[in-house]
Fold this sequence. Notes:
- A seven-stranded mixed β-sheet has the order 3-2-1-4-5-7-6.
- It has a single domain, classed as Rossmann fold (3-Layer(aba) Sandwich), CATH 3.40.50.
- The model has no long low-confidence stretch (mean pLDDT about 80).
- About 35% of the residues lie in helices and about 30% in strands.
- By secondary structure, it is of the alpha/beta class.
- The longest helix has 20 residues, at about 5-20.
- It has helices spanning about 5-20, 25-30, 65-75, 115-125, 145-160, 170-175; strands spanning about 35-40, 55-60, 85, 100-105, 125-140, 180-190, 190-200.
Amino acid sequence: MNALHFLRAVCVVINGNRINERVFAFKYRFFADLHGTVVEIGPGAGVNLQFFPQTVSSYIGIEPNPVLCRWLKRRKDEYHLPIQAVNAEADKLPYSSESVDAVISTFVLCHIPDQKQVLKEIKRVLKPGGRFLFIEHVASRHYWVRKLQDLISPVSCRLQGCRLNCDTIQSIRESGFASLKMIEGNHDKLFTIAFGTCTK
């Protein structure tokens, strides 16, 4: 087992549980009408599985960390739906075009350098009318908060892999989805969180 992968996996689980506590009730509503085949980008150890309704028939977690991928596989008997954990990167999803009903990401895109390629892949695998649901750290629209994000982002990126000043919303707007519904500007100190749904 790679020690660095294990250390990062532990950090992901700890941070994921801490963040999940803040948006716990919201996630039940946010994921309430998911159905069919759902792909999650960067699921970690599966913190979002508890929120999925019975209408989700198949779940695929695309997890680049092999340690987290193994942990996710061990949870397959805890839930009503078939769980498939795939150790892969999100910039090349190992699925055919127009094959899944929904893709979700929660606090993941701020870790990805090439967001445009990942969003392109998300759009490719979605069926017509399929949805991309996201809860993400984004660059603030408030001048002084953004300046502080710019200042602290290199440290945050090194310690947690999170780029606080990443303009994720702009990347999503430019990705060519048919529609975007979003709530932006939920501040938690230097973290600006955006919730949204895109439709193909």
